Amino acid sequence: MVTAKEILHAQEYARTSMSGRARRVGALAAALTLLLPLSAGCTSVLDDDALAGSDRQSGVGGLITEEPSPLVTVSSVMVGDDGVIELEMSDRSSMRGTLEHVLLPVGDDCLAEKTRRELRTILRVGTPVTGDETGELSVDGELVAEKLARKGLAVLDPAGASTETAHQQIAAAQNEARESGAGVYSTATACTLPAHLAAFASTSTALAAEADGFVALAVLDDASSAQHTRLASDSDAARSDTAALLEGDTAALPLAAFTAAELEYMRMQFSASDATHEEAVARANERVVAEEARIEAERIEAERIETERIAAENARIEAERIAAEEAAAAERAAAQTAPQPFAGLEPAASGYNQSTEPWNQPGPDLDCSDIRQMVRITGPDYHRLDRDGDGWGCESYG
Fold it and tell me: Is the pTM of this model over 0.85?
């Protein structure tokens, strides 16, 4: 394990004892040490003998000249979900740590996976890496943090302390990303804060336009109600997601990527979209309440009409029943009070000769309603009382 004393000794050695390429290698060692603390058991690039060995001399034409040392390059790179970078260098050193002075998306954060891929690309195998004693790491003459910031994948850490030059370079790259709408400033990447704001503005506007037509419908059908419910749900989800981002820590991503003025403007945008959303939902809810009231009124009216119809039908049936009973009673009363034309005559009995009865004699026409009893026809059926010719007439009175 390399101690702090050894690190300081190596830095001092690099500043005072080396020159040319050897000095740059020493600076890289110091930068990587500050940037990525050495893990236990790893070979240190700060070994005095190794540093001294990086200055190789050779005689050329009788002159003693310095021979440039080979560049320290990346031999393998790993970037963890937590943003920790693990490097194996061409000089067999192993280094592990995180970038200083900037905030990066990590874990499941928006753009985290894209940032990890970009770091693996920047620090790909064979890439020469340079650095200085302040902990700033560079590739191709540009800070690694600056490269990420230009693509909107890193922002200055409000709590970080970098050199003025590094701060200016990273800030300039971050402004380029802001102006081009890259990375965390993009409205095309769905997970970013600007994209969430744009989505909420779009869904709330669509909901408001739909509400205009919704409230104008004479009758709300299932299709219209389903469409309104879907748009309201989409807008509400966009609102919740955007609000959660805006309520985050301003010292952490994504809010740390924006100035206080930008955040204030974003909150104003959110408030405007929120007002549009609320007004559209309120108008639609009023229309729904009115529709429910209309449906309830129609139901009550239909029940009233049906109740009246049933009552009228029952009254008709009852009137008919009473009329029938009254008719039957009147008929019975009439039958009881009607004169009996042949009252006192007994039905034919044994030894009784009916041949002299009026129905067996010619004369005025008789009907069964006149006789009102079953009679024996003993001769010609003068009055057509024996319909079946069995010798009996008016059998219905039998």
Answer: no
